[in-house]
Design brief:
Elements lengths: L1 E6 L5 H10 L4 E6 L11 H17 L4 E4 L2 H14 L6 E3 L2 H9 L10 E2 L4 E6 L1 H6 L1 H7 L2 E2 L2 E6 L3 H6 L3 H18 L5 E4 L8 H8 L4 E3 L1 H15 L10 E4 L3 H12 L6 E2 L1
């Protein structure tokens, strides 16, 4: 029995790692589309096609439930996939929902009118594609009013992380935070809107200042998934766990092992 976790590359490992600790009895099949990473610089149609193909691959491998542990895919492809129709007995979920639930302190099923929330000034750090989609702002607007969201497209950060160049990645983060602060000097909260970014959460926090609450997705997604599986135990699927990549398995395995500090072995998808 396995739940599928999909990402354009290795960022989704930050979600997988927490999910495995939260749900030790659940198997996970992780799919990294490394051959086409990063998604953040691709257009919406291309992102949709790549995400659609990967999700259908995971469904075919017995993962009835697939988590898009990729904000870019969630922003550009999730709604379109759901509107196009999902096969009976299958589900695909994104990573925005738990984040917005935490920010607005209301459950996703709460369909009451939007209301004011405590946090009024939010910095969003994300890939260019996620920023241009305005998906986060759209979903937030359904549930909260009066929230000022200033988005910063963090070009180059995902590439540096995927290449294993954390020194460059940290320098880019500090540069992007500086650019955001020129537009919003005193954010109350910051959203790390890419699952790669928790690998640099300390750098974001230091650059933003201790007074800014930084929301990262791993814990929120893992807790939401645990709750979902309690309510839908039939979605555990029939496939086997493991690691798949469209890239070169040896290279991706080395990078993943470096990120998680434990041996990870990817196989060709």
């Amino acid at each position: 029995m396995a739940v599928g976790i999909f990402d354009s590359g290795l960022g989704g490992l930050t979600v997988l790692d927490v999910a495995q600790k939260r749900l030790p009895d659940v198997d996970f099949l992780y799919f990294a589309d490394s051959a086409h990473a990063p998604y953040g610089v691709r257009d919406a149609d291309n992102i949709y096609d790549l995400t659609h193909n990967a999700v259908h691959d995971l469904w075919a491998r017995g993962c009835d439930l697939v988590i898009l542990a990729c904000n870019t895919a969630s922003a550009a492809a999730l709604r379109r996939m759901q509107e196009a129709g999902v096969p009976d007995g299958k589900r695909v979920l994104g990573v925005f929902v738990p984040l917005i639930e935490a920010l607005t302190e209301r459950q996703w099923g709460d369909n009451s009118p939007p209301r004011e929330v405590e946090v009024q000034h939010v910095a969003l750090f994300a890939t260019p594609a996620t920023v241009s989609s305005r998906a986060f702002q759209r979903e937030l607007a359904f549930r909260a009013i009066g929230v000022d969201v200033e988005a910063q497209a963090c070009g180059g950060v995902v590439d540096a992380i995927e290449d294993g160049d954390m020194i460059l990645a940290e320098a880019l983060v500090r540069s992007h935070v500086d650019a955001l602060k020129r537009k919003m000097p005193t954010p109350q909260a910051a959203i790390l809107g890419c699952t790669h970014y928790p690998l640099l959460s300390e750098t974001f926090q230091q650059a933003l200042g201790s007074e800014v609450k930084v929301y990262s997705q791993g814990d929120l997604v893992a807790e939401s998934l645990a709750d979902y599986l309690i309510r839908h135990p039939n979605m555990l699927g029939k496939g086997e766990g493991g690691f798949l990549t469209t890239g070169k398995p040896s290279v991706v395995s080395d990078r993943a092992t470096q990120f998680l500090r434990r041996k990870i072995n990817f196989e060709a998808a």
